[in-house]
Amino acid sequence: MSARQVPVTIDRSSPVPLYHQLAQQLSRAVADGDLQPGDPFENEIAVAERLHLSRPTVRRAIQELVDQGLLIRRRGLGTTVSNRKVHRRAELTSLYDDLERAGQKPRTELLDLATGEDERVASGLDLEPGTPLLHVVRLRYAGDRPLAMMHNWLPPAYGDITADELTSGGLYEALRRRGGKPVVAQQSFGARMPTAGERRHLDMKPSQPLLTMTRIAFDAAGLGVEFGDHSYRASDYTVDLMVDER
To answer: In what order do the strands lie in the sheet with 210-218?
Structure first.
């Protein structure tokens, strides 16, 4: 499939930097649907020649779209329009699987399993408001030590997950049995003080902080798989990220 040329108007008399003018118009083409997820994107040399711009100017504009998660660059494959929900590609694993690989003994206490509605979660998963969601609340142990309190919301396709599955294994294992495979996710990390309930379940003192992680995961077709809101004992949990220079 050949790359579609997006009509762009550059005003050289404007105080707005040229790269920003280009980035704004390309971003609008993605937002308006003129460029669809998976579409090949015109290479920077072709854009520079077509619009009579320097390659550094075009490269900076394209990088803005990459940073916004609107484009994905793959070495040897070129640049394509990303799923609009893609923030960062990563190996997506469950805490249960991570603990098993580390030689620890994961154990799960199920605190709640119920179907309900949540407008914030539905919006995050690109679902209609009022969509019934399976809400799972679990306490995850590493051996006898409480490590994390986890809230997960699942779309109707996974609404038949049972309590037995959630206490005997990991959530992602249950998703895989139903054909659900998260491949991309938007993740946000933070820190805060625990609530009274979190202090009780995680055996924490009021002065001890929590590490928090919110994850919205999607499958290869761009369909929502899970919305997770997790709280970890900061003293027992570390997030390692690998970054490279592109």
So the answer is: 88-89, 184-192, 210-218, 224-233, 145-154, 133-142, 106-116
